[in-house]
Amino acid sequence: MPRSTVRAYSRYTEEALSLLAGLIRAARLEKKLSAQEVADRVGISRGMLSRIEKADPKCEIGATFEVARIVGVSLFDAEPSRLAMQVKQVEEKLALLPKSARKTKKAVIDDF
Fold first, then answer.
1. What total of structural domains would you count in the chain?
2. For the whole model, what pTM was predicted?
3. Cα separation of 46 and 48, whole Å?
4. Which residue range is the domain that position 24 belongs to?
């Protein structure tokens, strides 16, 4: 039987997750959207939405961001057109780095 690894998250990460989860839940309730309505619009289960609203760090980031978008929570404090511009700026910055710095590594070592 494979062992499940328990991942420890920093206080900053836990607080950021709690903040995003709270903003999502508050926005959903303010818009009077049911959990099922939001889940259906995003294409996730109601249980997944519940986990997102409870700040479960194992939820897919794409699903979490899509839920935030659906309920009107802005991410990165940017308008959609500004966000696209920021993505382009980051891509340009990455293109200027030496190839050795751009190589993706197969294993991520995150021992702090």
1. 1
2. 0.75
3. 5
4. 11-77
Asked whether residue 89 is domain-assigned, the answer is: no
Question: Looking at residue 70, which CATH number applies to its domain?
Answer: 1.10.260.40
Residues 15, 49: Cα–Cα separation, whole Å: 18
- Alpha-carbon span 17 to 13, nearest angstrom: 6
Q: How far is CA 12 from CA 9, 34, 105, in A?
A: 8, 30, 25
- Work out the pLDDT band at 102, boundaries 50, 70, 90: low
The answer to whether 67 touches 22, Cβ cutoff 8 Å, is: no
**pLDDT tens digits, residue range 78-100?**
677 787 888 888 899 888 888 77
SS3 8: coil
17: phi then psi, degrees, rounded to nearest 5: -60, -45
The Cα 82–Cα 100 span in angstroms is: 30
